[in-house]
From TrEMBL:
This is ABC transmembrane type-1 domain-containing protein. One of its GO terms (biological process) is transmembrane transport. The keyword DNA damage does not apply. GO terms for cellular component: plasma membrane.
Length: 177
């Protein structure tokens, strides 16, 4: 969809040319297959924002309205409601969502291969080419790249887990949150 809508010959470029805002489709900015990865970013934002919203709906539904009333009765404003009620409930889900989406995005092959450039390549595309390329000498590079990516994601996940667990343990012991 990003290619069909945002490429130089896509729907948006054709619409702008038909409306007279652009003289030619070559004047449309390059958003797909660009070195900055704008098309990849747009694709993942388009794909993952609805997922995060769906993950946050149950959390918002579980927050008791009395918490907001308490903040209001103590003279809090919208910022206080967010920092004292919403954020403590949302933070674990946001950290988990970030880890899931970051892991998926870092290791995904299809979007960077379709929308990305040939240089610089994302690690997943490079690993795929090393593994399935014509040279057997590159296969160890593919294994090393994917193992290092997996170890990086594991360390990031452990940091997130222990960061969230530390607050939970402190709250359970009564040391404050």
């Amino acid at each position: 969809m990003v290619i069909l809508i945002l490429s130089e010959t896509g729907w948006m470029a054709q619409t702008l040319v038909a409306a007279g805002w652009l003289g030619d489709t070559s004047n449309f900015p390059v958003w797909t297959r660009d070195p900055e990865g704008i098309g990849i970013i747009i694709t993942y934002v388009w794909k993952e924002v609805p997922l995060v919203i769906l993950l946050l709906f149950p959390v918002y539904a579980s927050i008791r309205p009395e918490f907001y009333d308490l903040v209001n009765s103590l003279g809090g404003n919208a910022w206080h409601r967010f920092t004292t009620v919403d954020l403590p409930h949302l933070l674990p889900v946001l950290v988990e969502s970030f880890l899931i989406i970051f892991s998926f995005t870092l290791a995904a092959y299809e979007v960077p291969a379709l929308i990305g450039t040939t240089f610089p390549e994302m690690i997943s595309v490079l690993g795929y080419e090393w593994f399935y390329g014509s040279s057997w000498d590159d296969r160890p590079l593919a294994f090393a790249a994917m193992v290092m990516t997996s170890l990086f994601l594991l360390v990031l996940t452990l940091i997130g887990y222990f960061g969230l667990s530390r607050r939970r343990w402190r709250a359970m012991r009564g040391d404050g949150a």
